[in-house]
Amino acid sequence: MTELNCGCADDQRTTLTRRGVLGKALAAGAAGAFAGLVGDQVSTQLAFAAGKYSGDTLVVLSLRGGFDGLSAIVPAGDPAYYSARPDIAVPKSRLIGGSTSFGLHPALAPLLPFWKAGTFGAVHAVGQRAPNRSHFSAMEELERAAPGTSVRTGWLDRMLGGLGANSPFNGVSVGSMMPARALAGPAPALGMKSINEFVMDGDETGQPMAATLQTLYAGAPALLSQPAGQVMSSLAAAKTLAAKAYQPANGAVYPDDTLGKALRDVARLIKGKAGLMTACVDSGDWDIHENLGAAVPGKRMHDKLAQLAAALAAFATDLGSTGMKRVTLVTVSEFGRRVRQNGSNGLDHGYGNAMMLLGGGVVGGKVHGRWPGLGERHLVDGDLAVTTDYQAVIGEILHKRCGLANTRSVFPTLRTTTSGVVRAR
User: Residue 388 sits in which domain range?
Assistant: First the structure.
């Protein structure tokens, strides 16, 4: 088995086998390896092929580490919440934008205008079908989304296949050199750290890697040349986008952090009409086992939520009401946190959680889902029970906003659905 080494720095290296260049291994995994292989001879036709897709761009924001939905979307009407968290509960007096049942953490203030406008909302007591408190296996199951089956592709890959994706720019992970596991499978997809950094290390005078790779695939069978062409055209398209200075619209100011930069690039791809059907973005460090803190600036959960809200608000402001009419952003996390605070004023791994949604088609300004209660008899091993399958929420989005007729092709074991979380296009 022959290996083709990309020549990148060790921490960015992608090794390809001749078997691996077939399909997505070349069309996506090689993005970091082949980045920068561009020139006048490279066509951008594939990369900017938006096709006939007229649905929403689905942006999936993974809050990795186990997001505490009870801190963000606070069940103010449930007294058990306050008795379980005497030191870290958000006081009712500090909640914003809610009702007698739920309120928003004050750090989410940048999103309050969208809440009031009805384009930002939440679903509570949501999660996977069975508790799984292992970060790795829970996230793997979340992104595979086919419990009890032998299916090994990611659910976003199946979504792309169902929508007829034919360009690597139809599905993009932004902020990572490799596509998210949810994109694993045969549909073309890309992973990029950023648009401006989509270049190849080592292609320089005396080391003509681009020319070498071009020669390697010259006259190759279509099985090899087609995915190679997709990679090359995608890199050329990224170079075209990067060459244009980007100024966020409507006075939007993105935070100068990883999440802000990633969402800024997603907005660039959407506005650049790159054919984006779905984008994956990560936000990490939500595994707060200690010192979660009070709901005031300078405390850990407050500041994390403030960063999240600032990035989301900038994204929605940048796209504007017109742009957001064709975008739905949804947050997911591998699990929630325990209801009761631990001895370190933090929260251990739990079960039920909250999903947040942002977009022109979102039925916002409210918390969806059936609330099970936080009394001891309602808990699942001390955790918030799950009354809504996260797949059902996404399934409604795929059907109503993305135009996918058969959601079972994406979620093969889905038996239920939600209704009224988003409006039909």
Answer: 46-198+233-409
Distance spanning both ends of the chain, measured CA to CA: 49
Beta strands in 371-419, from DSSP E residues, in sequence order: 388-389
Residue 377: CB atoms within 10 A of its CB come to 5
Q: Report CA 351 to chain centroid distance, whole Å.
A: 20
> Which candidate, 271, 14, 44, places its Cα nearest to that of 168?
44
Per the structure, the count of domains in the chain is: 1
CATH classification at residue 398:
3.40.720
Task: Identify the pLDDT of residue 9.
Answer: 39
Domain annotation covers residue 212: no
User: pTM to 2 decimals?
Assistant: 0.87
**77 domain residue, yes or no:** yes
Among the listed residues 48, 67, 71, the one whose alpha carbon sits nearest the alpha carbon of residue 284:
67
- Mean pLDDT of successive 10-residue segments in the chain (425 residues)? 35 31 36 31 33 90 98 98 98 92 98 98 97 96 96 97 93 86 92 84 68 75 72 76 93 97 97 95 97 98 98 98 97 98 98 98 97 98 97 98 96 92 97
Q: What is the DSSP string of 317-345?
A: HHHHHHHHTTEEEEEE-S--B-SS--TTS
How far apart CA 156 and CA 410 sit, in angstroms, is: 8
Within a domain: 425: no
On whether residue 192 sits in a domain, the answer given is yes
